[in-house]
């Protein structure tokens, strides 16, 4: 299929491609599996503690940011491998900066998660 045919793809097809992309990253990348496991645990805990509506919104926003960045990081890795299969300092820069973006989001998410859960754990004591 040529590039033009791809561009003519219907909205439904585009949605399907996006889902395929997500499934492929989940199958192939270890880091996103770790993020998804952490997400399931955090969602289970938030349900158990009957999170307030605002707390749910903050939690969902940080989950979305981390998982979306992980997907973008995988896309950057694929593009770099395609454009520069050989060792190149710029290829390293691109991959390391993309990985850095995920790391920043993950670290801040852990801090926000801690702040979100703290009052609920305090009530338990
Ligand atoms: N073409 C390249 N040129 C220079 N350095 C590269 C190149 N490809 C990867 N690297 C570097 O090698 C290290 C490992 O890269 P790799 O592609 O295995 O990704 P990774 O960080 O292990 O992530 P993942 O585990 O998600 O694949 C990183 O520091 C990366 O910047």
What are the defining features of this structure?
125 residues; nucleotide-binding; ATP binding; 5 helices; Helix Hairpins; cell membrane; binds adenosine-5'-triphosphate; phospholipid biosynthesis; metal-binding; mainly alpha
Question: Could you outline the blueprint of secondary structure elements for this entry?
Answer:
Elements: H1 3-7, H2 11-28, H3 30-48, H4 53-83, H5 89-124
Helix pairs in contact: 3-4, 4-5
Bound molecules: adenosine-5'-triphosphate (ATP).
Adenosine-5'-triphosphate is lined by residues 29, 31, 77, 84, 87-88, 91-92, 95-96, 99.
Write up what this structure looks like:
The protein contains five helices and no strands. The chain has 125 residues and is mostly helical. The protein has a single domain, classed as Orthogonal Bundle (Helix Hairpins), CATH 1.10.287.3610. The longest helix is centred in the C-terminal third of the chain and has 36 residues. Adenosine-5'-triphosphate (ATP) binds next to helix 5. It comes from Gottfriedia solisilvae. It is a multi-pass membrane protein. InterPro entries: DAGK, DAGK_sf, UDPK.
């Amino acid at each position: 299929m040529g590039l033009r045919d791809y561009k003519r793809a219907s909205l439904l097809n585009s949605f399907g491609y996006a889902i395929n992309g997500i499934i492929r990253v989940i199958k192939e990348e270890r880091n996103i599996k770790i993020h998804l496991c952490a997400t399931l645990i955090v969602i289970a805990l938030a349900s158990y503690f009957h999170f307030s509506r605002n707390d749910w919104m903050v939690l969902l926003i940080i989950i979305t940011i981390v998982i979306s960045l992980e997907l973008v990081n995988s896309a950057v890795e694929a593009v770099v491998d395609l454009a520069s299969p050989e060792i190149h300092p710029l290829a390293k820069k691109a991959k390391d900066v993309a990985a850095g973006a995920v790391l920043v989001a993950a670290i801040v998410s852990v801090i926000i998660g801690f702040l979100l859960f703290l009052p609920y754990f305090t009530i338990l004591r």
